[in-house]
Amino acid sequence: MHSSSSSLMLCVVLPFELHMDFYSINLRICRFYNGIMVWSYFGPFLLVTIF
Q1: pTM, whole model, 2 decimals?
Q2: Which of 8, 12, 17, 31 shows a CA-CA span of 20 to 30 A to 1?
Q3: DSSP string of 5-44, one letter each residue
């Protein structure tokens, strides 16, 4: 369960002010790809930058 916590923290990195739907999707992706933290981190981060 420790790994899951790490992935979740990475997802929380993105601003909370973002749309709830988007946040939910990012959280789901991180939970699904808890192993590929890099992908989950870079994906949402890039999208946030564009927004």
Answers
A1: 0.19
A2: 17
A3: HHHHHHHHTS-TTS-HHHHHHHHHHHHHTSS-HHHHHHHH
